[in-house]
Amino acid sequence: MSYLPQLQKIQQFFDSGATRSYEFRMQQLQRFKDALYKYEQDIYNALYVDLKKNKEECWVTEIGFIVSEINYALGNLKRWMKPQKTGTNLLNFPSKSFVINEPLGVVLVIGPWNYPLQLVLTPLIGVIAAGNCAVVKPSEFAPAAAAIIKKILQDAFPSDFVSVIEGEGHLVVPGLMNNFRFGHVFYTGNTKVGKMIYQMAAQQLVPVTLELGGKSPCIIEPDANIDMAARRIAVPKFSNAGQMCVAPDYVLVHESIKEEFIVKLKNAIDAFYNADNVREYNYGKIINKKQFNRLLTYLVEGTVIYGGSYNEASLYLQPTLLTNVSVESKVMQEEIFGPVLPILTWSNDEDVYRIIERNNDPLALYIFTSSDAKADKWMKTISFGGGCINNASWQLTNYHLPFGGRGNSGIGAYHGKYSFETFSHKKAIMKTPTWFDPALKYPPFKGKLNWFKKIIR
């Protein structure tokens, strides 16, 4: 199938300049927000079908998350669009300098299946706010969510402004990227596919944002508030059945508090996800049998001290804790992306560094300690995308912070103003008056060296 006629139509709309005005962008963002409310119940239904998410979780991690980002953009877009004044060096006196944020063109947004609305529609906010057009490719592995995304975007926007293209990613994405030069490509997903997208983009020198994953460690110091740490780790690790890129992937707990921490963590999981009166409503399912079977292979790579039960028919995998896990095992070499949590111990800092260095540049790092000095040390000596002190995963929800990885966990960042900047080109402008035009800057230059040394230093 050729996507070129459709893509050319979108490019023509962008080239017309229709997307560049403040009024147009504000109108589209408002239409976007209205459509989310209009299809709120349909979103709940779709996410229940794909991932068994309850309404409250849908609101916090999907609909409400997107709405809050739109509201932030609506309240700040005028300021973001203003030219940014900068200084001017002595050499160019009395010129004035400033930076203009210019839209990049037609942006391709490729989404994953784990948060199928949020991780497609949040970057789209930045695409629209920055004055671009968009092609959206939702994940085929969350088909109900993909269908409602298409319905929302077709209702909110004309197809030559925002277009949704469905299908199998390994067929659709090359068909798009190899036949059309996008202004930017934004991909959220696994590292293997991210590398392929990066290679395709490089052929046409297209800039990319790659939101990947990795093994995000959680370090627990002896002086941590253990009860609080257990609660704050249990929530994101087993929310969405653990299918979250910024969930703690493994715990590094100091050996002196291991047993106490495990007791507290079991209690938290029981209360939040595993008790009879909460399990059916609060706990999700694995997305498909492929992922389910992959996760089962991890259960034999350590000692199961909690959980381990599963039901293939319903794609249910109980929150599971593993100990006696080798750092050579597959569960410690691959991103888990599910409700399995290895618990390792350490006695000195070198143990922690040695384990983390096996999977460099994690997307996130979480530290639990009552010592500012210890927290500062870990944050400054380990490379990672972003993180929390005495919390886990919630940095993702703060639109004042950039969200993104580094190295193996990704390229670039977004959220809030950072989304606007990601999808804008910073055009540098210098305006020079005509009333001052010293002969010093013109040839012949012989004899002017001392003047140049005074001016340029």
Automatic annotation (TrEMBL):
Superkingdom, taxonomy of origin: Bacteria
Active site: 211, 245
GO BP: aldehyde metabolic process
Segments forming domain Aldehyde dehydrogenase: 18-428
Keyword presence, Oxidoreductase: yes
Annotated Pfam families: Aldedh (PF00171)
InterPro entries named in the record: Ald_DH/histidinol_DH, Ald_DH_C, Ald_DH_CS_CYS, Ald_DH_CS_GLU, Ald_DH_N, Aldehyde_DH_dom, Aldehyde_DH_NAD(P)
Keywords from the named record: NAD, Oxidoreductase
Similarity comment text for this entry: Belongs to the aldehyde dehydrogenase family.
Listed name of the protein: Aldehyde dehydrogenase
Species annotation: Paraflavisolibacter caeni
